[in-house]
Amino acid sequence: MRLMKSLTGMLLATAAMVMTANACETTLKSSDTHPDGYPTVEAVEAMGKMIEERTDGRLCVEVYHSAQLGEEKDTIEQTQFGAIDLNRVSLGPFNNIIEETQVPSLPYIFRSVDHMHKVMDGEIGQEILDAFKEHDLVGLAFYDGGSRSFYNSEKPIKSMEDLKGMKFRVMQSDMFVDMVSALGANATPLPYGEVYSSIQTGVIDGAENNWPSYDTSGHYEVAKYYTLDQHLIVPEVLVMSKKSWDKLSAEDQEVVRQAARESVPVMRELWVAQEKKSEDKVRAAGSEIVTDIDKTPFIEAMKPVYEKYVKSDKLKDMVARIQATE
Protein backbone atom coordinates (compact mmCIF):
# COMPACT_ATOMS: atom_id res chain seq x y z
CA MET A 1 0.00 0.00 0.00
CA ARG A 2 2.85 2.40 0.95
CA LEU A 3 4.59 1.61 -2.33
CA MET A 4 1.40 2.34 -4.30
CA LYS A 5 0.96 5.68 -2.48
CA SER A 6 4.58 6.57 -3.12
CA LEU A 7 4.28 5.75 -6.82
CA THR A 8 1.03 7.67 -7.07
CA GLY A 9 2.65 10.70 -5.43
CA MET A 10 5.60 10.57 -7.81
CA LEU A 11 3.29 10.31 -10.83
CA LEU A 12 1.20 13.28 -9.65
CA ALA A 13 4.35 15.37 -9.04
CA THR A 14 5.69 14.49 -12.49
CA ALA A 15 2.35 15.32 -14.10
CA ALA A 16 2.31 18.69 -12.33
CA MET A 17 5.82 19.47 -13.59
CA VAL A 18 4.84 18.54 -17.14
CA MET A 19 1.71 20.71 -16.93
CA THR A 20 3.78 23.65 -15.65
CA ALA A 21 6.33 23.19 -18.44
CA ASN A 22 3.56 22.97 -21.03
CA ALA A 23 1.83 26.06 -19.62
CA CYS A 24 4.97 28.11 -20.20
CA GLU A 25 4.39 29.39 -23.74
CA THR A 26 7.56 31.48 -23.84
CA THR A 27 10.84 30.96 -21.99
CA LEU A 28 13.06 34.03 -21.88
CA LYS A 29 16.79 33.26 -21.89
CA SER A 30 18.72 35.50 -19.52
CA SER A 31 22.52 35.81 -19.45
CA ASP A 32 24.90 36.65 -16.60
CA THR A 33 28.67 36.23 -16.36
CA HIS A 34 28.51 35.79 -12.59
CA PRO A 35 28.25 32.38 -10.87
CA ASP A 36 25.13 30.70 -9.56
CA GLY A 37 24.03 32.26 -6.26
CA TYR A 38 25.54 35.68 -7.06
CA PRO A 39 23.21 38.61 -6.14
CA THR A 40 22.51 39.59 -9.74
CA VAL A 41 21.71 36.00 -10.70
CA GLU A 42 19.43 35.61 -7.69
CA ALA A 43 17.66 38.89 -8.48
CA VAL A 44 16.88 37.90 -12.08
CA GLU A 45 15.63 34.53 -10.86
CA ALA A 46 13.37 36.37 -8.38
CA MET A 47 12.13 38.53 -11.24
CA GLY A 48 11.44 35.39 -13.26
CA LYS A 49 9.27 33.98 -10.47
CA MET A 50 7.25 37.19 -10.36
CA ILE A 51 6.75 37.11 -14.13
CA GLU A 52 5.74 33.46 -14.12
CA GLU A 53 3.21 34.02 -11.32
CA ARG A 54 1.74 37.17 -12.86
CA THR A 55 1.30 35.59 -16.31
CA ASP A 56 -0.13 32.34 -14.91
CA GLY A 57 2.95 30.51 -16.12
CA ARG A 58 2.78 31.71 -19.74
CA LEU A 59 6.12 33.53 -19.45
CA CYS A 60 9.13 31.95 -17.79
CA VAL A 61 12.74 33.09 -17.33
CA GLU A 62 15.73 30.77 -17.48
CA VAL A 63 18.97 32.27 -16.20
CA TYR A 64 22.23 31.12 -17.78
CA HIS A 65 24.86 32.12 -15.21
CA SER A 66 28.66 31.71 -15.23
CA ALA A 67 29.03 33.12 -18.77
CA GLN A 68 27.36 30.03 -20.26
CA LEU A 69 26.14 32.18 -23.17
CA GLY A 70 29.41 34.11 -23.49
CA GLU A 71 31.30 37.02 -21.96
CA GLU A 72 29.53 40.36 -21.60
CA LYS A 73 30.74 42.02 -24.82
CA ASP A 74 29.62 39.01 -26.89
CA THR A 75 26.26 38.68 -25.17
CA ILE A 76 25.39 42.32 -25.88
CA GLU A 77 25.41 41.62 -29.61
CA GLN A 78 23.45 38.41 -29.14
CA THR A 79 20.84 40.34 -27.16
CA GLN A 80 20.58 43.01 -29.86
CA PHE A 81 19.97 40.26 -32.42
CA GLY A 82 17.37 38.54 -30.23
CA ALA A 83 19.35 35.32 -29.64
CA ILE A 84 19.37 36.23 -25.92
CA ASP A 85 16.21 37.75 -24.43
CA LEU A 86 17.47 39.26 -21.17
CA ASN A 87 20.96 40.28 -20.14
CA ARG A 88 22.61 41.59 -16.98
CA VAL A 89 25.68 43.60 -17.96
CA SER A 90 27.91 46.22 -16.35
CA LEU A 91 27.53 49.65 -17.94
CA GLY A 92 31.26 49.54 -18.82
CA PRO A 93 30.95 47.43 -22.01
CA PHE A 94 28.17 49.76 -23.21
CA ASN A 95 30.41 52.85 -23.04
CA ASN A 96 31.54 52.51 -26.65
CA ILE A 97 27.97 51.88 -27.83
CA ILE A 98 25.66 54.19 -25.86
CA GLU A 99 27.00 57.66 -25.09
CA GLU A 100 24.85 58.22 -22.00
CA THR A 101 26.31 55.18 -20.21
CA GLN A 102 29.69 56.92 -20.11
CA VAL A 103 28.58 59.39 -17.43
CA PRO A 104 27.77 56.95 -14.57
CA SER A 105 30.91 55.06 -15.60
CA LEU A 106 33.17 58.06 -14.98
CA PRO A 107 35.78 57.63 -12.23
CA TYR A 108 34.72 59.24 -8.93
CA ILE A 109 31.44 60.57 -10.41
CA PHE A 110 29.56 59.19 -7.38
CA ARG A 111 30.44 60.19 -3.84
CA SER A 112 28.99 57.01 -2.37
CA VAL A 113 26.73 54.05 -3.12
CA ASP A 114 23.77 55.99 -1.63
CA HIS A 115 24.52 58.87 -3.99
CA MET A 116 24.55 56.44 -6.92
CA HIS A 117 21.18 54.99 -5.86
CA LYS A 118 19.57 58.45 -5.71
CA VAL A 119 20.83 59.29 -9.18
CA MET A 120 20.07 55.99 -10.92
CA ASP A 121 16.64 55.58 -9.26
CA GLY A 122 15.60 59.02 -10.46
CA GLU A 123 15.14 61.05 -13.60
CA ILE A 124 18.76 60.75 -14.75
CA GLY A 125 18.66 56.96 -14.46
CA GLN A 126 15.49 56.84 -16.56
CA GLU A 127 17.11 59.02 -19.24
CA ILE A 128 19.97 56.52 -19.46
CA LEU A 129 17.58 53.55 -19.65
CA ASP A 130 15.66 55.30 -22.43
CA ALA A 131 18.89 55.69 -24.44
CA PHE A 132 19.04 51.91 -24.99
CA LYS A 133 16.01 52.06 -27.31
CA GLU A 134 18.03 53.27 -30.28
CA HIS A 135 20.32 50.24 -29.97
CA ASP A 136 17.75 47.42 -30.23
CA LEU A 137 17.59 47.07 -26.45
CA VAL A 138 15.07 47.93 -23.72
CA GLY A 139 16.59 49.18 -20.46
CA LEU A 140 14.68 47.69 -17.53
CA ALA A 141 16.52 48.41 -14.28
CA PHE A 142 19.84 49.16 -12.61
CA TYR A 143 21.58 46.79 -10.21
CA ASP A 144 24.55 47.49 -7.96
CA GLY A 145 28.06 46.74 -9.07
CA GLY A 146 29.68 47.81 -5.83
CA SER A 147 32.73 50.05 -5.70
CA ARG A 148 35.68 48.88 -7.76
CA SER A 149 39.22 49.00 -6.38
CA PHE A 150 42.65 47.79 -7.50
CA TYR A 151 44.14 44.45 -6.49
CA ASN A 152 47.42 42.89 -7.56
CA SER A 153 49.93 40.12 -6.96
CA GLU A 154 53.03 42.30 -6.46
CA LYS A 155 52.76 44.85 -3.64
CA PRO A 156 50.42 46.99 -1.54
CA ILE A 157 49.32 50.12 -3.44
CA LYS A 158 49.26 53.10 -1.10
CA SER A 159 49.71 55.96 -3.56
CA MET A 160 49.58 56.78 -7.28
CA GLU A 161 53.35 56.34 -7.36
CA ASP A 162 52.90 52.65 -6.54
CA LEU A 163 50.75 52.16 -9.67
CA LYS A 164 53.39 53.34 -12.13
CA GLY A 165 54.29 50.74 -14.74
CA MET A 166 51.96 48.07 -13.35
CA LYS A 167 49.66 46.13 -15.70
CA PHE A 168 45.97 45.96 -14.80
CA ARG A 169 43.09 44.25 -16.48
CA VAL A 170 40.12 46.49 -17.20
CA MET A 171 36.74 45.89 -18.81
CA GLN A 172 36.66 46.33 -22.57
CA SER A 173 35.97 50.06 -22.40
CA ASP A 174 38.15 52.86 -23.82
CA MET A 175 37.28 55.03 -20.83
CA PHE A 176 38.64 52.50 -18.33
CA VAL A 177 41.81 52.13 -20.39
CA ASP A 178 42.29 55.90 -20.24
CA MET A 179 41.49 55.95 -16.50
CA VAL A 180 44.28 53.47 -15.72
CA SER A 181 46.69 55.29 -18.05
CA ALA A 182 45.94 58.60 -16.30
CA LEU A 183 47.00 56.96 -13.03
CA GLY A 184 50.34 55.96 -14.55
CA ALA A 185 49.63 52.25 -14.97
CA ASN A 186 49.16 50.12 -18.08
CA ALA A 187 45.65 48.92 -18.94
CA THR A 188 44.98 45.54 -20.54
CA PRO A 189 41.37 44.98 -21.66
CA LEU A 190 40.49 41.31 -21.10
CA PRO A 191 37.34 39.19 -20.76
CA TYR A 192 36.48 38.55 -17.12
CA GLY A 193 37.04 34.81 -17.48
CA GLU A 194 40.70 35.26 -18.47
CA VAL A 195 41.77 37.35 -15.47
CA TYR A 196 42.69 34.57 -13.01
CA SER A 197 45.09 32.77 -15.36
CA SER A 198 46.53 36.06 -16.63
CA ILE A 199 47.48 37.14 -13.10
CA GLN A 200 48.72 33.65 -12.29
CA THR A 201 51.01 33.56 -15.34
CA GLY A 202 52.19 37.18 -15.02
CA VAL A 203 50.53 38.47 -18.18
CA ILE A 204 49.05 41.16 -15.91
CA ASP A 205 49.88 42.24 -12.37
CA GLY A 206 46.30 42.61 -11.25
CA ALA A 207 42.82 43.91 -11.95
CA GLU A 208 40.14 46.10 -10.38
CA ASN A 209 36.77 45.01 -9.08
CA ASN A 210 34.41 44.87 -6.11
CA TRP A 211 34.50 42.66 -2.99
CA PRO A 212 32.14 39.91 -4.29
CA SER A 213 33.89 39.58 -7.65
CA TYR A 214 37.33 39.62 -6.02
CA ASP A 215 36.07 36.72 -3.91
CA THR A 216 33.86 34.59 -6.17
CA SER A 217 36.29 34.75 -9.10
CA GLY A 218 39.06 33.41 -6.88
CA HIS A 219 41.24 36.38 -7.82
CA TYR A 220 42.18 36.87 -4.15
CA GLU A 221 44.07 33.56 -4.40
CA VAL A 222 46.53 35.00 -6.94
CA ALA A 223 46.36 38.73 -6.08
CA LYS A 224 46.43 39.23 -2.31
CA TYR A 225 46.95 43.01 -2.21
CA TYR A 226 43.65 44.93 -2.35
CA THR A 227 43.54 48.74 -2.16
CA LEU A 228 40.20 50.42 -1.42
CA ASP A 229 40.62 53.45 -3.67
CA GLN A 230 37.01 52.95 -4.91
CA HIS A 231 37.68 54.66 -8.23
CA LEU A 232 34.48 53.40 -9.83
CA ILE A 233 30.94 52.85 -8.61
CA VAL A 234 29.55 51.61 -11.91
CA PRO A 235 25.94 50.43 -11.90
CA GLU A 236 24.97 47.27 -13.74
CA VAL A 237 21.99 47.23 -16.07
CA LEU A 238 19.31 44.67 -16.88
CA VAL A 239 18.28 44.92 -20.52
CA MET A 240 15.94 43.06 -22.83
CA SER A 241 16.25 42.47 -26.54
CA LYS A 242 13.86 44.82 -28.37
CA LYS A 243 13.03 41.94 -30.71
CA SER A 244 11.92 39.82 -27.75
CA TRP A 245 10.16 42.78 -26.16
CA ASP A 246 8.13 43.53 -29.29
CA LYS A 247 6.79 39.97 -29.30
CA LEU A 248 5.09 40.56 -25.95
CA SER A 249 1.67 42.10 -25.48
CA ALA A 250 1.49 45.53 -23.85
CA GLU A 251 0.19 43.85 -20.68
CA ASP A 252 3.09 41.38 -20.56
CA GLN A 253 5.57 44.17 -21.26
CA GLU A 254 4.29 45.98 -18.17
CA VAL A 255 4.56 42.77 -16.12
CA VAL A 256 8.21 42.37 -17.16
CA ARG A 257 9.04 46.02 -16.51
CA GLN A 258 7.40 46.02 -13.07
CA ALA A 259 9.02 42.71 -12.06
CA ALA A 260 12.43 44.09 -13.09
CA ARG A 261 11.89 47.15 -10.89
CA GLU A 262 10.80 45.01 -7.96
CA SER A 263 13.89 42.84 -8.32
CA VAL A 264 16.14 45.83 -7.55
CA PRO A 265 15.60 45.91 -3.74
CA VAL A 266 15.98 42.11 -3.74
CA MET A 267 19.35 42.48 -5.43
CA ARG A 268 20.50 45.29 -3.14
CA GLU A 269 19.70 43.37 0.03
CA LEU A 270 21.57 40.33 -1.27
CA TRP A 271 24.45 42.55 -2.41
CA VAL A 272 25.05 44.08 1.03
CA ALA A 273 25.13 40.61 2.59
CA GLN A 274 27.43 39.28 -0.15
CA GLU A 275 29.86 42.20 0.23
CA LYS A 276 30.23 41.54 3.96
CA LYS A 277 30.60 37.79 3.42
CA SER A 278 33.21 38.28 0.68
CA GLU A 279 35.21 40.82 2.68
CA ASP A 280 35.32 38.52 5.70
CA LYS A 281 36.37 35.59 3.51
CA VAL A 282 39.28 37.27 1.74
CA ARG A 283 40.55 38.89 4.93
CA ALA A 284 40.51 35.48 6.64
CA ALA A 285 42.39 34.03 3.64
CA GLY A 286 45.24 36.47 4.21
CA SER A 287 44.60 39.25 1.71
CA GLU A 288 46.25 42.51 2.69
CA ILE A 289 43.67 45.31 2.57
CA VAL A 290 44.87 48.91 2.19
CA THR A 291 42.25 51.37 3.48
CA ASP A 292 44.34 54.38 4.47
CA ILE A 293 44.75 56.12 1.13
CA ASP A 294 44.51 59.75 0.03
CA LYS A 295 42.14 59.77 -2.96
CA THR A 296 42.72 63.44 -3.82
CA PRO A 297 45.62 62.86 -6.30
CA PHE A 298 43.62 60.04 -7.93
CA ILE A 299 40.61 62.32 -8.42
CA GLU A 300 42.73 65.18 -9.78
CA ALA A 301 44.37 62.80 -12.27
CA MET A 302 40.95 62.17 -13.83
CA LYS A 303 40.61 65.67 -15.35
CA PRO A 304 41.85 64.60 -18.81
CA VAL A 305 39.47 61.61 -18.75
CA TYR A 306 36.51 63.94 -18.10
CA GLU A 307 37.71 66.33 -20.81
CA LYS A 308 37.91 63.49 -23.34
CA TYR A 309 34.58 61.81 -22.63
CA VAL A 310 32.36 64.63 -21.44
CA LYS A 311 32.29 66.76 -24.59
CA SER A 312 28.67 67.35 -25.56
CA ASP A 313 26.47 69.82 -23.71
CA LYS A 314 24.09 66.96 -22.95
CA LEU A 315 26.76 64.97 -21.10
CA LYS A 316 28.17 68.05 -19.37
CA ASP A 317 24.68 68.83 -18.11
CA MET A 318 24.23 65.25 -16.88
CA VAL A 319 27.54 65.36 -14.98
CA ALA A 320 26.53 68.68 -13.38
CA ARG A 321 23.13 67.31 -12.34
CA ILE A 322 24.71 64.19 -10.82
CA GLN A 323 27.20 66.27 -8.88
CA ALA A 324 24.34 68.49 -7.65
CA THR A 325 22.24 65.53 -6.47
CA GLU A 326 22.17 65.42 -2.67
Q: How many domain regions?
A: 2
- Structural class call reads alpha/beta
Rounded mean pLDDT score: 92
For the largest beta-sheet, the strand count, sense and barrel status come to: 5 strands, mixed
> Can you say what the CATH homologous superfamily of the largest domain is?
Bacterial extracellular solute-binding protein, family 7
Shape: globular
Enumerate the strands of the largest sheet in spatial order, edge to edge or round the barrel. 2-1-3-10-4
Give the N-terminus to C-terminus distance in angstroms. Answer: 69 Å
- Could you tell me the CATH topology label of the largest domain: D-Maltodextrin-Binding Protein, domain 2
CATH class call of the largest domain: Alpha Beta
Please report which band the strand proportion falls in: under 5%, 5-15%, 15-25%, 25-35%, 35-45% or over 45%. Answer: 15-25%
